[in-house]
Design goal:
Strand content: 15-25%
Order of helices and strands: EEHHHHEHEEEHEEE
Helix content: 25-40%
Strand order of the largest sheet: 4-5-6-7-9-8
Distance between the termini: 26 Å
Structural class: alpha+beta
Largest sheet: 6 strands, mixed
Shape: elongated
Mean pLDDT: 91
Number of strands: 9
Length: 238
Amino acid sequence: MSFGHLLDIGEITPSIFSNLDSFSRISTFLTLYNSCVDKPLKIPLSYAKFRSIKGAFTARIDDLLRFKSGKKCVKFCAISNQIIFAYKSKNYKNISKFIAKEPKYPVAKLIKMLFFNGNFELFFDANFMFSQFVYDKISHKNIDKDISILNNMIRISQNGRNLLCVIPSFRDFCIDEAGVIRDEISTAIRALKEDKFERVYVVMPRNNAFKRHIEVRHCECENHQIKLVPYTISNKIF
């Protein structure tokens, strides 16, 4: 499932976020988006006030262009200037000419990413966004440990010990429908038995029906811990 703005459809939102008001929905998108891109492309959450993905990003571009015009650039970049000129002239199709070239100015990078198809378009796989978000938060919280991600499993180790395996799963989870996470539980059991992790957490977005940690008891892992963990999508480090 995708999350973002498609050229022919407009905004598309995963069902788990469909009940959010427009500000909360855009804030959630920006939080997830910022975990997927490099620093020059990140968007402050304050832009959620524009209440649409396109509105937030075009407002950010316009603000960056105003900032750039009042500041001398350290290094001139012809490609960046051509991209900016195409954007200001609304000749968006010309931006696609620079698809193989890398602009230096952050605002030009943003314009190129958003308009390389000739019109505004930006979308991500929601599963990917959530996994990157969880990885980003875990990395910031465990700077003293070794963090890696392999096959959608976030592995936390230290001094040769496999401490914790985190399995992100983008689901609108409800305990009454626990059968939908059979694959995740099987993956968790393998992580405990084969990779010798001390704990495994399956993390899913927090919702009204899933607010507390749930311990999973399994006959193959009686002496180890598997937990289902509700994860709040927030800009805070927790």
